[in-house]
Amino acid sequence: MSRTLLDQWRDIAYDEQADRGQLQNFWGTYFQIEKEIYEKLLSNPDEEVKGTVKELAEKYGQEVLTMVGFLDGINESLKEENPIETMEEDTVVSLAFDKEKLYKNMVAAKADWLYELPQWKEIYSEEELKKLYKEQKESTTIRKGKKVGRNDPCPCGSGKKYKKCCGR
């Protein structure tokens, strides 16, 4: 069985045998391409961009495997996910994204070169962007509850001290 496009992309992008400098160059180039595609998508956020993987690669002036990497990255932010695991060059895919989800996923990925794109300011106000940023950051913050002392009332509501109830 031949390797899927996604497998081919991942072999290149996550090659553990590759020279570190080569990988840094690869990702630096990829992030620039990704940024350019997002600039175009965000300049008209309500337009659904649709086509085969090959057509989209041509539309954005990219190689098919680079487009596959982009599709892999944006997939969780789409209104309907594409079949990235099985797609071929002639698979029709959509880039219709959920704006809020996309912004939050960019924040979660710590991709400041993407969530700070000026096009976002055309979509959301400064306050809305701050609110979305804060919501995303807080959603990954782990908060520990107040520790129950052994002589405190048991949190189960029995009325007994914790040490005589659930603390056993």
TrEMBL record:
PANTHER family in the record: ADENYLATE CYCLASE-ASSOCIATED CAP C-TERMINAL DOMAIN-CONTAINING PROTEIN, UPF0225 PROTEIN SCO1677
Region span, Disordered: 136-160
Biological source species: Clostridium scindens (strain ATCC 35704 / DSM 5676 / VPI 13733 / 19)
Pfam families in alphabetical order: SEC-C (PF02810)
Family matches, as Gene3D superfamilies: 3.10.450.50
Protein name per its UniProtKB record: SEC-C domain-containing protein
InterPro entries found in the cross-reference section: SEC_C_motif (IPR004027)
